[in-house]
Amino acid sequence: MKWKYPVVSPHPPIIHTALDGKRYAVGGGEWVELPDRVTKDTLHQWMVWSATLPKKNVPNDKVWEVKGSKGSTYTVSRKSGAWSCTCAGFKWRRDCKHMEAKKQECQNEDGK
Ligand SMILES: [Zn+2]
Questions:
Q1: By the 8 A CB rule, do 92 and 99 touch?
Q2: Which residues touch 60 (CB under 8 Å, ≥6 apart)?
Q3: How many angstroms separate the CA atoms of 53 and 47, rounded?
Q4: Cα(57) to centroid of ligand 1, in Å?
């Protein structure tokens, strides 16, 4: 059997005691019934707040407006680590100078 805990909650989990005495970890719509032995200190074994988890190594999504040499504006975006640009060059080659310029910028930022 696969161990499905802890459940990851988008909100800080709390312990809720129901009228019948059952206890639940509650966070952002997720309810997990808790055994008696679980306390505030061991709650994280059952439910964790997503903000306390180590961040995955995927860069944040970002969108830039980039002015092209002929006066048009292109949109360069990075979603889940994948780059794209709205210019014709990117459409054909999956690569372009707008994107390259932003990649370079990002690398400089990360290298700080
Ligand atoms: Zn481009």
A1: no
A2: none
A3: 11
A4: 25
Ligand 1 mean position to 101 CA, how many Å? Answer: 9
- Ligand 1 centroid to Cα of residue 69, in Å, is 11
- Cis before 6? omega within 30: yes
CA–CA separation, 90 and 94 (whole Å)? 4
Neighbouring CB atoms inside 10 A of 30's CB total 15
Written as tens digits, the pLDDT of the chain (112 aa) is 566 789 999 899 999 999 999 999 999 888 999 998 899 999 999 999 988 887 766 778 899 999 987 889 999 999 988 999 999 999 999 999 999 999 999 888 765 5
